[in-house]
Write a structure and sequence with these properties.
The chain has eight helices and five strands. By secondary structure, it is an alpha/beta fold. Helix 3 runs parallel beside helix 5, helix 5 runs parallel beside helix 6 and helix 7 runs antiparallel to helix 8.
Length: 209
């Protein structure tokens, strides 16, 4: 009889969205939803959420130090909202992300990066400022995509899709009108699912080769 496949060790790094702030139940958080989707696809998932609410890209270094002893198979990195909110220069933020991805890839982990959200969709951003905010977000997103792909990560290009969904349905925001609600996390997980599944399947195929 063939030996049982090893569990897929899935790590979630990043900020409050990666952590699940705003979700009504633990089962509704991004990590738990994606783990459930992977389980439905036949994976035995070992989930570790190392994300820290309020984290900026520079904080990924500490999260990666916690991640490496766990020997991750797949790392999901969701970062950038707080860099934007705190006016962290885009080159500084992207360099920190690139270093984190490089370290994870060197440890043998597949990496999926979710770039910064379009903060202009947040309800309390004044309409007159939305073009300016959208432009700043675009600069960071472009830099994140460049360094992440350069370091060997897959970039989940879901920003435009999710921005449109959140603008169209205010119920996707939690009561603080900033973080996603449980319904919002369901929508994010639905967008990210194909990217995470593809990375996990590629990892499985490489291990079987």
């Amino acid at each position: 009889m063939a030996p049982a496949a090893s569990p897929l060790r899935l790590l979630v790094l990043g900020d409050s969205i990666a952590f699940g702030t705003g979700a009504a139940r633990a089962e509704d958080t991004l990590g738990r939803r994606l783990a459930a989707e992977l389980t439905a696809d036949g994976f035995d998932v070992d989930l570790h959420v190392l994300a820290v609410p309020g984290a900026v890209s520079a904080d990924l270094a500490a999260q990666v130090r916690r991640a490496l002893p766990l020997e991750p198979d797949l790392a999901l990195v969701v970062i950038g909202a707080n860099d934007l909110a705190r006016f962290v220069p885009a080159p500084q933020a992207t360099a920190a992300l690139g270093a984190a991805v490089t370290a994870l890839r060197a440890a043998g982990s597949a990496v999926v990066v979710v770039p910064a959200p379009d903060m202009s969709m947040v309800p309390f951003v004044p309409p007159a400022l939305r073009p300016l905010v959208r432009g700043a977000c675009s600069v960071l997103q472009s830099g994140q995509t460049r360094v992440a792909e350069g370091a060997g990560a897959t970039v989940a290009s879901v920003v435009a899709d999710l921005a449109g969904a959140f603008v169209a349905d205010p119920a996707l925001f939690s009561a603080d009108r900033f973080h996603p609600s449980s319904a919002g996390y369901a929508r994010i997980a639905r967008a990210l699912g194909p990217h995470v599944l593809a990375a996990a399947r590629a990892r499985r195929d490489d291990a079987a080769a």
